[in-house]
Amino acid sequence: MNKKMIAVLGCSALAASMFSMTAMAEELTTVGYAQVGHESDWRTANTQNYQDVFSNENGYELSFVDCDNDHQAQLEAVRNFINQELDYIIIAPIQSAGWDTVLQEAQDAGIPVIIADREIEADASMYDAWVGTAPKDEGVTAGNWLAEYLDGAEANILVIEGSVGASAALGRSEGFNQVAEEHEEWTILDSQSGDFTQAGGQEVMESYIKSYEGQFNVVVCQNDNEAYGAMDAMDAAGITYGVDGDVVLISYDATHDGLQYTLDGKINCDVECNPIQAEIVKGVIEQMEAGEEYPETTLVEDEAFVAPGIESEYATTMTQEILDGRAY
Ligand code: GZL
Ligand code: ZN
Asked: What residues of the chain score a pLDDT lower than 50?
């Protein structure tokens, strides 16, 4: 076969592969995900889940933006998705407020928007679907479990909140406070934001120990990473916590490490918030693509876990089998 033949064959093979790539590219559904950031293990698991589910193999081109816990950066990411004329936009809102304008812009551009994980303060007509968890219910579960565990005993409580303005933090506080109001033997001594990070949890706990040492017997951390920071601070101060400690430690998220600490009795109660949500969101998008009816709201189920030796009507007692079987 002469060189010219090979050159022609080469070009046609190249053209064929280009065509199939182009055809592939045209078939891919383009999705933008404006992610909160990378503040916690929960967030890492949620991000990985989206990258696994919205893959090219599954027919998607995912534009993923880590908005680094910055609301303005998140608005900009959404505006860029609009300018790129993506097929769908998914937003995990850093804060609940401040979404009306950009949601209107997406609606004017005819791009469906799905709000995921957290809630926003916007009329439901401003977006197309919501998939997430119920932070207020999580807060009520934490409060109900504490009341069951204390059985009337006095509680002097320190709360390390999540990120300021995040529905996950607002909801957990609202739910827990609702239960606390039913117990005049409970006092919430202080409640400050640790920004859902381990460093934030440690910093707030260190300041709490300076202000309230010897006065508190319950610490509520609004996510596992804050709990790890609070544990470091209490260790450094010689304050004991957990099933055999002086302080009852409650956390949220029930990530793998959080449940390991719960199994070890270091965390008394860990209220789950499930980050594995991408498959559900993909299902909604597929129904939208097919022009089918789709659920406008989908609640991702949560449960709660407690340390071995604790029996509860609100939570499951941790075992090694449960830990080994967890998806994240
Ligand atoms: C909860 C989620 C929260 C987690 C934190 O739905 O938005 O954000 O509780 C994460 O760990 O940072
Ligand atoms: Zn009571």
From this structure: 1
